[in-house]
Amino acid sequence: MFTKPIAGRTTAAAEGEVVVLLIGMRINHFRGVRHWVPVFAAMVRMLRELGRSKERGLLGYTLLTGSPRTYYVVQYWESKEKLYAYASAPDMFHRRAWAAMNRKERKSRQHVGLWHETYMVPEGGYEAIYADMPAYGLARATGVLPIEGRGRRAADRLAHRSGAK
Hints:
By secondary structure, the chain is of the alpha+beta class. 35% of the residues lie in helices and 30% in strands. It contains five helices and seven strands. It has helices at 33-52, 80-88, 93-108, 137-142, 154-159, and strands at residues 6-12, 18-27, 58-65, 70-77, 112-121, 130-133, 144-146. The chain has a four-stranded antiparallel sheet with strand order 3-4-2-5. A three-stranded antiparallel sheet has the order 6-1-7. α1 (33-52) runs antiparallel to α3. The radius of gyration is 18 Å and the shape is elongated. The model has no long low-confidence stretch (mean pLDDT 92).
């Protein structure tokens, strides 16, 4: 259950562009359980579905809570094309869940809020450092490297280019 920390300082093994999707929900009225529980359950179902289909492009994710009302997922994707393809794929659960939410929107909006933000981060636009941590966040999604693999300073890690040796 508990992940053992990696001793010392490490960084993420990400190469090239990183696509980050933040997606979440806010419970506006706790009494509207029948409106917000299906939204939460749908997110869990989509994450399981993506976990079984690695070719869809989800590299990894972290579930977080912002407050007792707000729950969200930080997702790391191979590409924006794979993210868009999953979102619109007729054979995947997201499309059915989104259609159902839109049908219920007038009533559900009062009880549960939805949001997402998508960021396409070019190589050189991200860096990471983890000290005595298990693989987490971007490193959990893309792999862990000793800090020396990318540089001891943030400026060195930001200057890393996957094609340069």
